[in-house]
Amino acid sequence: MPRCEFIDDLIPLILDADDHWWPRHFARLATVSPAWQYYVNKRLYPYPDIHSFASARLLADTLMEQPSLASLVAGISLRPVAKDSSSRRPKPAELKAVRYLLSLEGLKRIALGGELAVQTERFLRLIADPDSLTDLHVDGSALADCLSTRPSLEWDESLTFSFPALQKLRLTHLELDIIPPSMPHPSSLSTLVLENVHIISGQLTHLLNGAASLDRLHFTTVDPVGSDEQLKVVLASCTVGCLHYETLKATHSNEFVFDLDANCAESLRCLHLDGHFVDLGVLNSVGRLCRNLVELVVSGRAVRVSSQEWARFIRSGALSSLRRLGLPSGTNIPPFGLWLSKEVEEIRDACASRQVPVVLL
User: Fold this and answer.
1) CA nearest 77: which of 112, 114, 129?
2) Which among 16, 75, 223, 230 is least buried, having the fewest CB atoms inside 10 angstroms?
3) Is the pLDDT of residue 350 over 60?
4) How far is CA 354 from the centre of its chain?
């Protein structure tokens, strides 16, 4: 029986049929034929994820030997971590590899972490094509528990000038110094995400440098008192479309909502409060101040609003523009107790009366 010839045009369909391919699977498939290698390379190289200096050197060597592969790289994640403190400093050849990878043209998305999250501004200045960068993530998670070396970033106006197309900035587990700018130069940012960032000096408004608006501001903190002040200044200085505010530390009050400026609150279309103390007073303040909300999500074990109070709030017609609602699955009486099925049904009925879908978190 004659063998049927395989149709190469089926290869991308096969690869797209499953989103759980591992790199080792791609490596094996690339050896099947030149056609398989071509389509596999298009999936392997757009965003390489590097976790050691040795891997960075191997990738740099590969791209230098095969320039056609370098043209496929649209972003890169460099999070090298040394095996022990004695080998923390990279070898000259490994540092040269990092420099080469950051010099690739057309990088739109870059993540720096591991050892590169220490005084990260040094490595940001190695990016050879900063005009192309739209998405930057500095991630200090790998060194978050290290006592001798702290992940850190000093942000000044030179970095703002360097990345004119930057739309999303995400900072994770860092000590952040923000140097006040000498002149107004509004940032191009539309999304700012700060996760467990300790602001040593400066204001977030200095980082935004006069930006008139933000589409999305995501703030995760273990210091809600200090973070409240930073957020209030940001909300007073620019229009924020969606605010996601999460605290990892238990709170017994929520002055942030009560102190919101009415004009700032009215600009919000989306509000997520995660881990915050929320009682009926806080909820009513949200309903009074944030009148244009389209999405409200309240989650965590510090919520003291009962199912009956949620149902009454929804039926009252508060937040008339609301289209999506996320709620915790119970009330902190205290302690936290899950709602009974009849209590959940009461909330669902109230939401159904306004055609607002609800999700219990």
Assistant:
1) 112
2) 16
3) yes
4) 32
Amino acid at 36: W
Query: Residue 207: is it exposed, middle or buried by C-beta count within 10 angstroms (0-12/13-18/19+)?
Result: buried
pTM: 0.90
Return d(Cα 53, Cα 115) in angstroms, integer.
9
Residue 260 within a domain: yes
pLDDT digits (tens, 9 = 90+) for 204-233: 989 988 788 899 999 999 888 788 888 888
Q: Residue 257: how many CB atoms within 10 A of its CB? A: 23
Contact 270, 292 (CB under 8 A): no
Q: Tens of pLDDT along 259-300?
A: 777 778 888 999 999 999 999 999 999 999 999 999 999 999
Return d(Cα 178, Cα 203) in angstroms, integer: 7
Specify the pLDDT at position 2. 65
Share of the chain above pLDDT 90, in %: 63
Secondary element (H or E) of residue 253: none
Quote the domain boundaries for residue 265.
212-361
CA 79/CA 62 separation, integer angstroms: 19
Query: Is there a domain that residue 304 lies in?
Result: yes
Q: Give the CATH number for residue 331.
A: 3.80.10.10
CB 152 within 8 A of CB 177: yes
Is the pLDDT higher at 252 or at 132?
132
* Domain count of the fold of the chain: 2
For residues 94 and 82, give the distance between their C-alpha atoms in angstroms, rounded to a whole number.
12
Q: What is the dihedral of CA 84, 89, 91, 96, to 10 degrees?
A: 130
181 belongs to a structural domain: no
In a domain, 106, yes or no: no
Question: Residue 20 forms beta bridges with which residues?
Answer: none
